[in-house]
Amino acid sequence: MQEHDVIVVGAGGAGLRAAIEAHEHGADVALVTKLHPVRSHTGAAEGGINAALHSEDSWDLHAYDTMKGSDYLGDAPAVDAFAQEAPDEVIQLEHWGMPFSREDDGTVSQRPFGGLSHPRTTYAGAETGHHLLHTMYEQVVKRGIEVYDEWYVTNLAVTDEANPEERACHGAVAYEIATGEVEGFYGHDGVILATGGLGQAFDHTTNAIANTGDGQAMAFRAGSPMEDMEFVQFHPTTLPSTGVLISEGVRGEGGILYNEAEERFMFEHGYANNDGELASRDVVSRAELTQINEGRGIEDEYVHLDMRHLGEDRILNRLENILHLAEDFEGVDGLDKPMPVKPGQHYQMGGIEVDEYGQACIDGLYAVGECACYSLHGANRLGGNALPELMVFGARAGRHAAGEVDEKAKVKTGPSAKSEDGSIGSPVDLGGVSESEAVATDGGALATPQDVLEAAVEAERDRVETLIERDGINHADVREKVQLTMTENVNVFREEENLKQALRDIREAREMYQNVAVRDPSRTYNTDLIHTIETRNILDCAEAITAGALAREEFRGAHWRKQHQERKDDEWLKHTMYAWNNGNPDLYYKPVILEGDEETYEPKERSY
Amino acid sequence: MSTQVTEKSDEKEEAESTEQSPGERRREEKAKRQQEKEAETPELIDEADETVELKIFRFDPEVPDKEEPRFDSFTVPYFEGMTVLDGLIYSRDNYDSSLTFRHSCRQAVCGSDALLINGTQRLACKTQMVDLEWPIRVEPLPHQDVVKDLVVDMEHFYEQMNAVEPYFDPDELPEEDREEQKQRPENREKIKLSTRCIWCGACMSSCNVAAGDNEYLGPAAINKAYRFAMDEREGGDKKEDRLRILEQEHGVWRCQTQFSCTEVCPKDIPLTEHIQELKREAVKSNLKFW
Amino acid sequence: MAEHYSSFQRSSWRWVAQRVTAVFLIGALAFHFVLLHFINHAAEISFAGTQARMDEIGYLSLMVTFLVTAAFHGLNGVYNALVNQGLEGTQKRVVGLVLVLAGVLLVGQGTYVALSMNGFI
Amino acid sequence: MSSTYDRGTVENFGRWREFSAGMWAWVLHKFTGWILIGYLFTHIAVLSTATGVDQAMVEANEDIYTNTLQDLEELVIVRFLEIGLLSVAVFHILNGIRLLMVDLGVGLESQDKSFYGSLALTAVIAVASIPTFLGGVF
Ligand SMILES: Cc1cc2nc3c(=O)[nH]c(=O)nc-3n(C[C@H](O)[C@H](O)[C@H](O)COP(=O)(O)OP(=O)(O)OC[C@H]3O[C@@H](n4cnc5c(N)ncnc54)[C@H](O)[C@@H]3O)c2cc1C
Ligand code: HEM
Ligand code: SF4
Ligand code: F3S
Ligand code: FES
Q1: Which element (helix H / strand E) includes A233?
Q2: Domain boundary assignment for chain C
Q3: CA triplet A556, A558, A563: central angle to 5 degrees?
């Protein structure tokens, strides 16, 4: 058993920031991560990191933009804290040596970005995330913070009182990938989950293969509800074979989208008569998919993004990295041919329900980064708002876990925050299939935190043994089934029948999962085992997304429902909560907090 | 629980022996297509039933069958734009789930999947199959211990990276709270390429000196040090410290300008140039004391 | 591997010396080859001819310098090559000593030969 | 991870097939450097016949030094070895210049071309020197 004050699970931007902050405040921190820190997907972020740095800019403008972008589903305490602290965090990064792009006078550059009222996206070339990740890892090395890399966290050690708000998290169980050893990590002051996105719930995503929603699923099964899971951002221009992102910059520079008949469909089919290709992400994604579904896609799969008319000089000057991406990952020379693109899953707005300090309803459990939902992005995230989020909330959670925060959170969490029951109308049972899936641990009966952890470790050892020993099907079949149905039915377009179909398919996949087995008998670097466990997490996340999407009968932000084409503020200004409840999930709602520090945000028409 | 290649793939392998390898054919076709750029409709080749053979290194210290290293053949369907990583994933998911390799981002930023592909260190995700000779031979990075299949022990590489004090450490910071340190755009430009390193280890694996001398810092770590030593925000005192680290026995002097590091780096970092520049810097700073 | 720092050695002077001697050797070696193979054919070399050349103090000192630089350059090169291949500890020290010794012997014998040619000895 | 597979020296050496220009240059530079230093020792050894010669013999061109050198020069094999030595020296010089440029940071982008250039020039010079070296043996 390893013992530390704070266990941080995941070492992307959010986890590293949390670890540094907790360490600065005297805590003994361990970073436990399934990938070496620099391999985290934060490294893929290109565009930039928003912060009101200029003297003409101010935090409340940033907060306002964020709230408007969220389609008024953000919670004001989180939004305000975010906008207020983002500038400090960006300057902090600079002081840690991040190589931001510079103006002639040596100050950091900022550029305009969609949905922002001021150019406040600070950037480091077209690889902001890469630099942010490496800069923070450097600081972790400098401080000598202990990193357990290639340790896969499989479960949390949580007591099992009936009410999740009475439960406590004492640590996590991790599997050392290289050796197959299962070990307990005891965290005196808590566990911070920072496991990133869940793009692998879809078969086409800009996310990494390791983004499997592990944190969300682990917290969910331990009793912490998932919030606003139906809000998934789809990016309109990703390469069809890999999902690699083709930056919005191409359309910004004048790139044009064509369908198979070489029609400029954004205009010719009237999707966006004013902005055309530059309409917002969700509009363009829906337009592309409509074309494809109506048979005007190329090879029934994608559309063309053409930038050849911009001329070689301009392309080489401003979009050179796009040429490399298209060539390296799709084998297409963008100077010579139009690039194939289609919408792909990009970002998960929802996640583990936490307050503005990153605390979940379970005592000692925190979540930060993309896996968390402090209700900052609400129904739609603005570009460049995720990286500052990692920093601000990573730091807040780190500070809180180190015992440095006295204030009480304004955002309420857990079942007691419930304002209203919900209903899903699912055609099938949801949640666990077998009894064994129901309980996190026997914590309620166990005396000491160590006992809780030991019990959790034992349970995981059993699970690993069973998976390796028994015969059965390959998890890849289950994963593929979920991914396909999610992309087919819970994509950009959401229709009641399709959502129900997805729930049926997920149920079937869950049943299939009962028979999965790991074929590789080895204890050494058994990725078969890791992927098999991940697939279980994907199932839970996919179900939560679909359940939320089916429940929310309106069109808000990234969530589009065919039969409900408007935003219904009277009825739906509330968060969708999805709780595990020992294997029998329950959907309910909690109110949105619009009263901020300075003002109360008034829902307005979201038009740009 | 067989770790053998499925029979299906073996059969295909036999049927696969034409005089001209598909790789050659496709590369020829690609060249032809490039010539015919202006021609109206470049002829579309039917790729529907084209397959690629991958010869993959296998080893597992624990599985009796795999204790002796060997190569397994997997024949996978080819599609346009297919990368070597796609081929590996297909083989694993469809033929043998025990096939083990690191991968994550699929877009050349995480640095997990540097492998020896047809004899050269490359990122599997960034390597188009068309650009290679077929069948494609995939091995773990040379000069590193193999943990299993294509997974090598990266510990030594990380240690070398950490040995150069790989973190920003300025002599002083601005007084004001929300004030950034100034950096001239030219200075940022100077360190730009060096900051792109994704820790894939390809360079280190390709360097013969690093293979011979285990303590040699290696191109990636030296490049990391370059990134800080050349950053004007750090200040002169720190630069002296950094040069002192680089100058030790197993530092920059070990480099014999083999250039293979520069050639394999997937981020096109001019590693040899950076190392050479540091050698000159070191000489300069030593001359100061004489 | 943390003891990188302990095996501290500012070896830049050897690196520089290797390059400086190389520059000198480019000229010296070319001169030597041209003189003894293309101007005076090797087959026609005789002691008398050698002696005549060596009598000139400039030529003599050039040849001795050539010898010293070549010995340093060559042996230092060999030393580097061996160390680069991972020679450590005692082995390294022994090789270093042997090479220095060989160098001293080489230069000593060479100078002695040159002086005999010159007729000093 | 109780045991890992270390592919060992044999397999690592087998990688020569995958060497690129810069690595060949490195190998050849080493190789030629070693030959040159080896030759320097031999050379001094041969020249040592010049010590303690009898001045009378010198007058007659019959001293050991002159005899040794001229006897050696009569051997065809020695003449061929000399061509080899010249090639080795020329390559080492040319590649040495290339390396000096690399040290100064000049022309790093064309390092492979300059290596091939050195090889070609070495070949040319070696061929051109044949008449001189082989003159009079046959
Ligand atoms: C292509 C792309 C471009 C983007 N561009 C931008 C942009 O320009 N601006 C912006 O603001 N945002 C951008 N985003 C969004 C932003 O990058 C992500 O939301 C953010 O990086 C997520 O960071 P994270 O720290 O939460 O997770 P990650 O960086 O994904 O890290 C997750 C960590 O958790 C670990 N982990 C996961 N599961 C486990 C487990 N079970 N056990 C142990 N460890 C585990 C992993 O090893 C990893 O270290 C982009 C996203 C993508 C995909
Ligand atoms: C005449 C011009 C010469 C030039 C330009 C030259 C150049 C160089 C250079 C630059 C190196 C350094 C390689 C490195 O460490 O990266 C070197 C190495 C070496 N040189 Fe020379 N050299 C010359 C002559 C000689 C002579 C006459 C000898 C022999 C006596 C010699 C023997 C060596 C040896 C042994 C090495 C070490 C090679 C190794 O193993 O790495 N060189 N030479
Ligand atoms: S320098 Fe290049 S090859 Fe080396 S680790 Fe970094 S990215 Fe990889
Ligand atoms: S391959 Fe090695 S020898 Fe130097 S130039 Fe690169 S580090
Ligand atoms: S998978 Fe990330 S670099 Fe190839």
Answers
A1: strand A232-238
A2: 13-118
A3: 55
Say whether A359 sits in a helix, a strand or coil: strand
Q: Using an 8 Å CB-CB cutoff, list chain A residues near B173.
A: 95
Check if the beta carbon of residue A506 is closer than 8 Å to that of residue A551: no
Q: Answer yes or no: do C74 and D33 touch at CB < 8 A.
A: yes
Question: In CATH, which of 3.30.565.10, 3.50.50.60, 3.10.20.90, 3.40.640.10 is domain A2-232+346-415?
Answer: 3.50.50.60
Q: Does D83 touch chain C (CB under 8 A)?
A: no
Q: How far is D20 from chain C (nearest CA, A)?
A: 19
CA of B90 to the centre of ligand 3 (A): 27
Q: What is the 3-state secondary structure (H, E, C) of A114-163?
A: CCCCCCCEECCCCCHHHHHHHHHHHHHHHHCCEEEECEEEEEEEECCCCC
Does domain A233-345 fall under CATH 3.30.1490.20? My reply is: no
In the annotation, is A167 catalytic? no
Domains of chain D listed by start with CATH number: 19-134 (1.20.1300.10)
Q: Is the CB of B123 under 6 A from ligand 5?
A: yes
Flag residues of chain D having pLDDT under 70: 1-18, 136-138
Cβ atoms of A307 and A319 closer than 8 Å = yes
> A151 pairs with which residues across the strands?
A176
Binned at pLDDT 50, 70 and 90, residue B5 comes out as very low
pLDDT digits (tens, 9 = 90+) for A243-294: 999 988 788 788 899 999 999 999 998 888 887 887 778 888 989 999 998 9
- Interface residue B283 vs chain C (CB under 8 A): yes
Task: Work out whether the CA dihedral D98, D103, D107, D110 comes out positive or negative.
Answer: positive
Write out pLDDT tens, residues D39-71: 999 999 988 887 777 777 777 777 778 888 888
Can you tell me which atom of ligand 1 is nearest the CA of A174? Answer: 42
pLDDT above 90: percentage of residues in chain D: 29
Residue A179 near chain D (CB below 8 Å) = yes
The domain ranges of chain B are 21-152, 155-286
**Residues facing A8 on adjacent strands:** A31, A192
Q: Per CATH, which fold does B155-286 belong to?
A: Fumarate Reductase Iron-sulfur Protein; Chain B, domain 2 (1.10.1060)
pLDDT band for position A189 (50/70/90)? very high
| Residue C88 CB neighbour total at 10 angstroms | 12
Residue A394: closest CA among A368, A420, A371, A374: A368
CATH 3.40.50.720 corresponds to the domain B21-152: no
Angle subtended at Cα B194 by Cα B192 and Cα B197, rounded to the nearest 5 degrees? 115
Do D89 and C29 count as a contact with CB atoms less than 8 A apart? yes
Query: Does the Cβ of B102 fall within 6 Å of ligand 5?
Result: no
Nearest CA in chain B to A53: B178
* Distance in Å, CA C73 to ligand 4 centroid: 21
Q: Which CATH class is domain C13-118?
A: mainly alpha
* Interface ipTM: 0.89
Alpha carbons C61 and B206: distance in angstroms, whole number: 45
D and B touching (3 or more beta-carbon pairs closer than 8 Å): yes
Alpha carbon of residue B36 to chain centroid:
33
Q: How far does the centroid of ligand 5 lie from the alpha carbon of residue D129, in Å?
A: 53
- Tokens 């300059």 belong to D114
Task: Say how many Å lie between the CA of residue A126 and the centre of ligand 3.
Answer: 18
Burial category of D44 from C-beta neighbours within 10 Å (exposed 0-12, middle 13-18, buried 19 and up): buried
For residue B219, the distance in angstroms to the closest alpha carbon of chain C comes to 14
Q: How far is D82 from chain B (nearest CA, A)?
A: 28
- Given a contact cutoff of 8 angstroms between Cβ atoms, the answer to whether A118 and A6 are in contact is no
Question: What are the two backbone dihedrals, phi and then psi, of residue A440, each rounded to the nearest 5 degrees?
Answer: -70, -55
Q: Which of A167, A281, A507, A561 is catalytic?
A: A281
